[in-house]
TrEMBL record:
InterPro entries, sorted: Cation_efflux, Cation_efflux_CTD, Cation_efflux_CTD_sf, Cation_efflux_TM, Cation_efflux_TMD_sf, CDF_Transporter
Protein name from the UniProt record: Cation diffusion facilitator family transporter
Superkingdom of this protein's organism: Bacteria
Domain Cation efflux protein cytoplasmic: 217-295
Chain segments annotated as transmembrane: 12-33, 80-109, 156-176, 182-202
Annotated localization: Membrane
Organism: Paenibacillus baimaensis
Keywords on record: Membrane, Transmembrane, Transmembrane helix, Transport
Length: 317
């Protein structure tokens, strides 16, 4: 990732983190003042989205700080550790809010939340949609699947706010209609959002597990990568090609054979061309590790009579 792309990606993550922390504080305060269980649960949902963005940002920084070795591997590890911490907190707090909402419903609700809760809900929907549009368009422009996934978390957060809006409006309407049973819509909405929080915590755990495990691509996907390499000038044979998924990325390990009589610089240029072709034609490929071997030094490359004579081209094609 270039410095410019990294800065744009990091800025987008910070927008999501700061925006969701602000929304969590706003909804938490208004939820406490208005007495809305649903709004308090929605505040936790914003915290979970901010935690997800933090995990992704940590992964990006880990990749930048490790220019040598396998940065994507370290990135996946950093994301996994952060995701596990966040997911455990989400599961514990989400389950606690679930029990709290159930207790409220069981013991009865004698009053609806205050109308001030609507202010925080409307602001949440507007800001969530704004963050979604920004991150989604930037992710599409940069072909960054992590940003697109982060953007979709904002869209899901907006849907949770719609659930809260229905619960609060329904409970308030019960006050005007004289129907006390409608008061239960607020804690019911809170219960539903808390379940969504627990679900997000569970999914974060599963994603972190998947990121630490390497999944080898299917044969048909590898064959497509193989065809891309085989037509590149200077590549005589592809001895080995292994493509594995790591989180949202695909990492390719490859061994190619080249003319044994070419220079080191020419071999390096061929390897560079292979890497660029794979990453350009297959946008899901994020890193390529290449080992260059000399092809079998027999006909037509070997010259047993005069080693100073070389009538053959340094390239096969």
């Amino acid at each position: 990732m270039t410095e410019e792309r990294f800065q744009k990606t990091e800025f987008a993550y910070w927008i999501g983190i700061i925006g969701n922390i602000f929304l969590a504080a706003l909804k938490g305060v208004f939820g406490y003042i208005s007495g809305s269980k649903a709004l308090i649960a929605d505040a936790l949902y914003s915290v979970s989205t901010a935690g997800h963005s933090c995990a992704m940002l940590m992964g990006q920084r880990a990749a930048k700080q490790q220019p040598d070795g396998n940065p994507l591997y370290k990135q996946g590890k950093a994301e996994s550790i952060a995701a596990i911490i966040v997911s455990v907190l989400l599961l514990v707090i989400g389950i606690e809010i679930c029990f709290s909402s159930v207790k409220t419903i069981y013991y009865g609700v004698d009053s609806p939340p205050k109308a001030t809760a609507l202010i925080a809900i409307v602001l949440s929907i507007i800001l969530k949609e704004t963050m979604f549009q920004y991150q989604y368009r930037l992710g599409k422009k940069m072909s960054n699947q992590d940003l697109i996934a982060s953007a979709r978390k904002h869209r899901l957060g907006m849907y949770s706010s719609f659930v809260v809006l229905i619960g609060v409006v329904g409970a308030l309407s019960g006050n005007y209609l004289g129907n006390n049973y409608l008061y239960y819509l607020d804690p019911l909405a809170g219960l539903l959002v808390a379940v969504l929080v627990v679900r997000m915590g569970y999914r974060l755990v599963m994603e972190s597990i998947n990121q630490t495990l390497e999944h080898v691509l299917h044969d048909e996907d590898v064959a497509e990568l193989m065809r891309t390499v085989q037509v590149i000038k200077g590549v005589i044979a592809v001895e080995y090609l292994r493509a594995r998924e790591q989180g949202h990325y695909v990492i390719v390990d490859i061994k190619i054979s080249v003319n044994p009589r070419i220079s080191v610089l020419e071999g390096h240029d061929i390897a560079k061309t292979v890497k660029q072709a794979l990453m350009k034609r297959h946008i899901h490929v994020a890193e390529v590790y290449i080992h260059v071997n000399p092809y079998d030094a027999g006909y037509p490359y070997k010259n047993n009579i005069d080693l100073e004579q070389d009538q053959f081209s340094s390239m096969l094609h």
